[in-house]
Design brief:
With about 170 residues, the chain is an alpha+beta fold. It contains six helices and five strands. It folds into two domains: about 130 residues, Alpha-Beta Plaits; about 40 residues. Strands 2-3-1-4-5 form a five-stranded antiparallel sheet. The longest helix has about 40 residues. It is elongated and about 95 Å long.
Length: about 170
Amino acid sequence: MKKEDKSDIIKQLESTINEYAHFYLADIGGLNATETSELRRVCYKEDIKLVVVKNTLLKKALENTSVDFGEIFGSLKGETSLLLSNTGNAPAKLIKQFSSGSKSKKPVLKAAYVEESFYIGENQLDALIHVKSKNELIADVIALLQSPAKSVVSALQSGGSTIHGVLTTLSER
């Protein structure tokens, strides 16, 4: 491959990584053509971009970004695929679901960059599935803050209807 081609691929990878908030490194080697096509179909349906990359080119692309990805460079061995998504836990769910139905038990998680944190190794998959996005956490906090206010309003409303019922009964007598 020519040096110009490599630099073009590196720039393309850089821009692709910058478009998405989260990415996963996975090993999909060993999947046959049918399984690979099915994986690509599922990724497309879940709005996850799947890119098969060369480790050296990906490393150079990651080095050119504003974030220090040094922690995941150790995972760039063997066959590597990049799964990019704007939903933090979507690729983790896809990896778990797809590998459980695959004969080769692939894809296998190598590393992930989710919600500005690094997750290294296959054993982090379950933790990644349960990661909540910032928006989900904000929604949870708002729901917790609204709960006491809703209880007070509900109590006031029920008390008002009880008094109204008593007064209506008394007025009928």
